[in-house]
Amino acid sequence: MDLVAICNALGNKTRYQLIKSLKDKSISTCCNRIEYYENGVSVGDVVKLTGLAQSTVSQHLAVLEQAGLIYKEKRDLWSCYFLNTKVIDKYLKELNK
């Protein structure tokens, strides 16, 4: 776990809000490859939430994925993104040391 990469990823308002929305389960998905209980999103869901271009959203998701805060699963033609709670829990423990 790279603490600096995580801090850099969360230092962007859009990425921070995306992580917070995933944590709070406030993003609904239109992707029929993600079950409700999984709390995942597609790129299209994030585009709809933020109003940003798809390419911009993809870049933000890539930064979050590289930092380990989210992970991606390919499901048919869809890329589905999920919160990596293990990394987030480790990060919070490190901050509290």
UniProtKB/TrEMBL annotation:
InterPro entries: ArsR-like_HTH, HTH_ArsR_DNA-bd_dom, HTH_MetalResp_TranReg, WH-like_DNA-bd_sf, WH_DNA-bd_sf. One of its GO terms (molecular function) is DNA binding. Residues 1-97 form the HTH arsR-type domain. Keywords: DNA-binding, Transcription, Transcription regulation. This is HTH arsR-type domain-containing protein. It comes from marine sediment metagenome. The lineage of its organism: unclassified sequences, metagenomes, ecological metagenomes.
